[in-house]
Specification:
Blueprint: H1 3-12, H2 20-32, E1 36-39, H3 45-50, E2 59-67, H4 96-107, E3 112-121, E4 125-133, H5 138-142, H6 154-172
Antiparallel strand pairs: 1-2, 2-4, 3-4
Length: 173
C-alpha cells in the first residue's frame, strides 16, 4: 500500500487508534479559533490532493466551522400562531459541507472553490477544510492541468453549481 492509502485508513476512524490523541487535541484547539481560518498545510493530504490541491503558490486551504443541527431560534416575544413562530422543526435544506464551502467562498471572493472534505466534529460543531485556488495567480495560469480554473465565468459557474445542488435538494424534499 502507498502512503495515501495508509493516511486514508487512519482517517476512517480518527477517534480510535494512533490518531485519537492528536484528533482530540486538535478539536480542543479549533474550538477556540475563529469560524474561518486559513491553514498552512491540509490536515488530510490525501483528500486535498484528490480535490486538486498542489503545494505551490495560488492554492490555499481554509478550515471552516459549521454548527451542527437545526437553527436554535429564540422564542418570539410578540404574539402569533405557534406554527408561525419558527422555533421548532427548522432543518436547513443544505448539507453542512455545502454551507462550509459557501462561507469560504464568501470570505475569499477572489478565489475559486475546488472542493472540501471533513476534518472533525464534536457535539456542537463540524469542521471542513475547503481547498481554494486563485485563478489569477501566474503559477496557476501556467500549469496546464490547473489553468481550466482561469476561465472568465469561473465564479459564475461555482454559483451555478451551488444553485443546481439546491434545486436538486428542493425537488427531492
Amino acid at each position: 500500500m502507498g502512503y495515501y492509502k495508509y493516511v486514508a485508513q487512519l482517517w476512517k476512524r480518527p477517534r480510535d487508534g494512533p490518531l485519537a490523541e492528536v484528533y482530540r487535541k486538535r478539536i480542543m484547539e479549533w474550538r477556540r479559533q475563529p469560524t474561518i481560518v486559513r491553514v498552512e498545510k491540509p490536515t488530510r493530504i490525501n483528500r486535498a490532493r484528490a480535490l486538486g490541491y498542489k503545494a505551490k503558490p495560488g492554492f490555499i486551504v481554509v478550515r471552516v466551522r459549521v454548527r451542527k443541527g437545526g437553527l436554535n431560534r429564540p422564542r418570539p416575544r410578540s404574539g402569533r400562531r405557534p406554527k408561525r413562530m419558527g422555533v421548532l422543526g427548522y432543518a436547513p435544506h443544505k448539507s453542512a459541507q455545502l454551507i462550509a464551502e459557501e462561507r469560504a467562498a464568501r470570505k475569499y471572493p477572489n478565489l475559486v472553490v475546488l472542493g472540501s472534505y471533513w476534518v472533525g466534529e464534536d457535539g456542537m460543531y463540524k469542521w471542513y477544510e475547503v481547498v481554494m485556488v486563485d485563478p489569477h495567480h501566474p503559477c496557476v495560469k501556467s500549469d496546464p492541468e490547473r489553468n481550466w480554473v482561469c476561465g472568465i465565468r469561473r465564479k459564475i459557474r461555482y454559483g451555478e453549481k451551488v444553485r443546481k445542488l439546491l434545486e436538486k435538494i428542493k425537488h427531492e424534499g
